[in-house]
Amino acid sequence: MCNRPRTKQVIEPTRKIYPDIAQSFGITGIVILGTLLFTPVNLILNKLIGKEASMLIYYLLAIGIPFWIVYLIKKKKTGHDSFNIVIENKRIIPFVMVGTIVLLFGIISPIANLIPMPEWVKKMFIDSSYTGFFAFLVTGIAAPILEELIFRGIILDGLLKKYAPTKSILISSLLFGLVHLNPWQFVSAFIIGIFSGWVYYRTKSLSFSIIIHATSNFCGFLMLYFISVDSLMDNPVLEIYGGFPNLIMTIIGSVFTLAFCIYSLGKEFEVKKCNDCRQKQKPLHKQFLTVFLHK
């Protein structure tokens, strides 16, 4: 364990923090409004270029334009116009990927299946489930990048500068869940958002959040590709997992695996913190030189 040198926090009065909690809800409202306003575009393009291609264009417009609007607002208010995507420690990647997978199948899926789903909602999910190339571009690439830029890169990053980490992570995860506009995806987005938010808080790198999001979406894409959507929707959770004993074993195994991943990530984060601490501590001759030059 390393001791950080005590330094006075310098606050820049001219640079504003964006967003706060109210502004974060406003950003979420802009995103939801975008998804509603561009729905007619999706319906028109469905007949012209097909459902999957139209879904890609619709998504890029519905999420991309709100992101650009919010990005410009942030740039104007804070003066910051970039996002940190540097991966300093590649050993973190397998832990966040495995952690996401066990979260999804061992914790999120059993919880989400406890929520009753009306027939019309099942039909809506079935009708919007695609497994082609354009669907992969949306779920595996566009969604992880654009949504993480908004909810971790802008919202969480701003909240962390003004509020406690736990509060910031929970609020950003709540908003990430709300933007999906249904309770089943809310569960997944909220829990994955907490995990992603914690990793972002400890690394300050958006790349890990994108990897977590992409892993979650890609798992869902593979399930739709190899398993019938109807069987996933119609079969109860016990049948999907092969019975109650298998479900319990899956949950227990997932909890232990997730705990190991979180423990390992914590160790990696501590290594980075200590390395940063050592870099900030100047050699003795430089300390004397600094004192001499300031006399």
Automatic annotation (TrEMBL):
This is CAAX prenyl protease 2/Lysostaphin resistance protein A-like domain-containing protein. GO terms for biological process: CAAX-box protein maturation. Residues 133-218 form the CAAX prenyl protease 2/Lysostaphin resistance protein A-like domain. GO terms for molecular function: endopeptidase activity. The keyword Membrane applies. The chain crosses the membrane at residues 21-44, 56-73, 93-112, 132-151, 163-179, 185-201, 208-227, 247-265. Keywords: Membrane, Transmembrane, Transmembrane helix.
